[in-house]
Amino acid sequence: MTLKPLHIHTPLLHSHILTQLTGRNIFLKYEAFQPSGSFKDRGIGALCQYYAAQKVNGFISSSGGNAGMAVAYASKILHIPAKVIIPKTTASIMVQKLQAENAEVFIEGENWNEADTVAREIANSQGFAYIPPFDNPVIWEGYVSLIQELKQDGIKPDAIIVSVGGGGLFSGLAQGLHHIGWQDVALITAETAGAASMATAIKENKRVILEKIDTIAVTLGAKQICQQAFEWTHRHPVFPQILSDKEAVSACLHFADDHRLLVEPACGASLAILYEKRLILEQFKNIVVVVCGGNGVNLSLLQAWKKQFQL
């Protein structure tokens, strides 16, 4: 029996405002409308269902935000307990949201990498299924569904803009494009300057480990992209873009005004490519932007960032 997926088929809407601004046909794939608030329901949800079928004792995740939320949501739906290990940089809004989903939350480490080490140790000692935020074949396969939905909706773009942290979504999108024969659809990756692990890897042609994460877009905070993502950079057309924190926050503010939706700076990085009219856009006519999530934001945070960057 095929299990019903934990994600939904999200809307794909044409943005008249961004189309007029950029001179390109811009479509928005609203992954922020997923049940847990981000695209992670596709990949993380699939992996949780995989382990649920094996009758595990519980799930354990290391996440500064959206991956943890997806695990917590899956835990509630599948009736399997979850522990979420988060770094100290995690915003209090995320702690509250995780606890509201009845996940057991532990704060460990200065960044995701340190929190992940603790999560792995607990998984080994307590027999919980370890749910990584991005590095697992089942997770990548889960993200193929996003590409399948584009095909079902009758939109083949020339390029897809996607924010990159550890590279899980990027890997799944590339896999999906090749699966349906859309190898010519480029991926434009967005990262903030303080967490540009993919752009650095492409530039140096190796998986670089960043010395530190220094960005307001904490959910992009992986020091190194996964091996699968790095391999796809050699097999698929990729155009890395690095945005400043200020540009990412500015895009969040503009997007709230233009499209009546709050998104976090990790998503703002992708949107900033449009609002900043990056030259890369001139190479493509029809562009889909993955509006990846809005868990780590509220009006108070948005106002604080606006003041911080004098926007």
Walkthrough of the structure:
There is one protein chain. This protein is 43% helix and 16% strand. By secondary structure, the chain is of the alpha/beta class. It has two domains: 12-39 and 136-308, Rossmann fold, CATH 3.40.50; 40-131, Rossmann fold, CATH 3.40.50. A six-stranded mixed β-sheet has the order 1-2-10-7-8-9, sandwiched between helices. Helix 2 (40-52) crosses helix 6. The longest helix is centred in the middle third of the chain and has 16 residues, at 137-152. The chain is globular, with a radius of gyration of 18 Å. The mean pLDDT is 93.
Provide tags for this entry:
311 residues; alpha/beta; Rossmann fold; 2 domains
Describe how the helices and strands are arranged.
Blueprint: E1 12-14, H1 16-22, E2 25-30, H2 40-52, E3 59-62, H3 66-78, E4 82-86, H4 92-100, E5 104-107, H5 112-126, E6 129-131, H6 137-152, E7 159-163, H7 168-179, E8 186-192, H8 197-204, H9 227-232, E9 238-243, H10 245-259, H11 265-275, E10 286-291, H12 299-308
Parallel strand pairs: 2-10, 3-4, 3-6, 4-5, 7-8, 7-10, 8-9
Antiparallel strand pairs: 1-2
Could you provide a short overview of the structure?
With 311 residues, this protein is an alpha/beta fold. The chain has 12 helices and 10 strands.
